[in-house]
Amino acid sequence: MINVDLTRNVITFEGQSIALAPRCAELASCLANVFPDVALTGDILRGLFGRNEPLRADKVLNAFGTELRRAVAPIGLGVATFKTRGRAFYILRDGVPLGAEPPGQRNKPDRNRIILALREGGMTTHEIADWLDESRNAVSAVLRRAKAIEARA
């Protein structure tokens, strides 16, 4: 479904291809190899750096993840970050994740209620994300969806 050509640094999804920076292509390959599952952070770092892992590899990985997320959005892919676990591709349709949320987050209505309750209780998005061990983007997405649903009601 997701094909990454490391010789040309190109990712292809549903017949659409896009060129990537070499390290982004390597990250994309790590994620595509386990799609739709989550690629563990340790496995990603070994795939990207081998034994030559930089001192702040987590910061470098965050930068590559952000660059990859921006690069693959036009072809209908997103990159979810799971702070303690790793990263995963998910499919976008019209800029919205297919299904309610990125992989690993589906069928968790209690999580959504908890996020809303914590926000109403005065916690910031950053505090909620840290407390639930979620990415800030995931928490923000839940809050945006709740606001949109509330506006329609």
Protein described:
By secondary structure, the protein is of the alpha+beta class. The chain has two domains: 96 residues, Arc Repressor Mutant, subunit A; 44 residues, Arc Repressor Mutant, subunit A. Helices cover 49% and strands 20% of the residues. The chain contains six helices and seven strands, in the order βββαβααβββααα. The strands form two sheets. Strands 4, 5, 6 and 7 form a four-stranded antiparallel sheet that branches. Strands 1-2-3 form a three-stranded antiparallel sheet, with helices on one face. The chain is globular, with a radius of gyration of 16 Å. 25% of the residues are buried.
Question: How large is the count of helical segments?
Answer: 6
The largest sheet is:
4 strands, antiparallel
C-alpha-based Rg, rounded: 16 Å
Shape: globular
Give the fraction of residues assigned to helices.
Answer: 40-55%
The tally of domains stands at 2
Separation of the first and last Cα atoms = 38 Å
